[in-house]
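Entry 14. Ran structure prediction on the chain below.
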Amino acid sequence: MRRIACLLLLAFLVPAGCDSYAFNNERSSWASTDKYEFDSTIYRPVTITLQETYSKSTIWKKEIPPGDALVIDLDRKGENELVSISGNPATSVKWWLYGPDRGEPIAKGSKTLSGMPVRLVYNIRPAPEYPANYVPPNQATAAPITPPTTQP
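Output, structure tokens:
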């Protein structure tokens, strides 16, 4: 009986260990091969564009702020992610933007696609690109120091 219990426990733990976000987070799923994560840094700021493959027309575009990460999931009609993806073009796209702490998404959205083949285009913007509230050390100004007053 113990062997059966151990085998059942392993049967459930091994697939869960293969994907650490399978149960408690939208960032990843069991076996999706069409989910992508893109990181943007100060010295490699990234823009992701979703284009139709043949016409090269832009469907969706996102500039990822430095320090953040973008997760994109392309979904196909009739797709069962526990088994595999179909050979059909994507019919919808979902995206999540995560901040530097990679906790909960700071923005997310979805878009319905026309069913035409699409491609993701990865572009690197000119660097360095600093976060919105960043002040480089050589440009920071210190607050003036006031000497203590002495009382007679």
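Residues 2-18 form the longest helix (17 residues). Will compare against last week's run tomorrow.
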